Amino acid sequence: MKKSKFDASALLLVLLIALLGLAISFLCFSTMLFHQINLGLFTVFGIYCALQNKKIANNENKKVMMLNFIDQFIISLSIHKTLLASVKSVEELSEIAIKRELASFSDGEPWEKIDYLSQYFNHNIYEAFLDIIKTYLEQGGEILKSSSALLKEVGEERANMIKIKQLHSQKLAELIIGWAFVFLIIGMLRFVVSAIYQSLLLNNTFVYGLEFFIIFILVSFVFYFKIVLSTQVEPIKKNTTKNKYIPVTEFVKTFALFRMNLGGSGNIYKTLEKTANYSQGLMAQELLQLVGELKTNTNLTPFIKFASRFKEPLVKHILINIYQMMINGGDPSTLFEFNYLFDRLYELNAETIFTGIKRKYENLAQMPMMGSGILVMLIMVGVVGLLGNMLYV
Length: 393
Fold this sequence. Notes:
By secondary structure, the protein is mostly helical.
């Protein structure tokens, strides 16, 4: 059965936002027309908030389910050793959403089931998981050892999610508090100098400016939702004109996939080729070019050429290390050095991404200050108009 777009919590959220809008309208205005306008405006905004909140929750839950599924499956496979027993064990422990997706595969092969879930999760980590499982089925070995990089990536992804979610909650609280202090100014005007405020409401410029001010507040929360969604949904990278440099974020994201796949096969060239096929945009072009050059030129030059597309010096050292692994046949010391260097770049990139999100929130935090300025200007316009009327009476 298809779930409805609105559940009880979503309807309650819409109702609370509509009532809040009505309360704000009664605080700011004294005419029924503006009460009706604001009730409609906040109801529409409440519906928008409910839809965005559900979208954010669905994205988060799906990713958490994927990470839990991968963890549980690899542990189960290390115990049961067979795909059939592992699928049955994990399916029993999985969330209802996963069971619903697998409902049409009750009699299907175990591999078909986990492969089908790639359409539901649609994430590079899950693709790497499938490649590792496939390699394990073909070649055997220790699944925990071959999937160590994957499990590490799962843990880091989960930690980043928690850290960013806490930042979202903190900044939402700060935004609400910031606007609450602005409304405190209106409340003081309304109840402390009520006679003057009622006179201000007779000025059309003040009244319509106040309505614009309320819309400005709602726009700030729209920007908040856009920031949250931007941290959850990765945009599709299209082939574009070459820029001088590719962002280091793209390198980290792509070579995290390389490291996960490397644990499954151990073949550097095949892993690079597989990573190139999973990549998008300029990274896909550059990686495919690197793989193509390695067919005829197995020296360091193609790697140095590829490294020149990035500003970060660590990228060059990592690629040199990958070249050494390729010619040394996966020597443990070079693999250790690669993991050390890549972990360092991963941490720097994660901190850069987190700082970028904080910077967006710093820009958003300016909106209550701008709102205060708008409100002060409206009050000044209203007072000047009121004084003008008094002088010409």
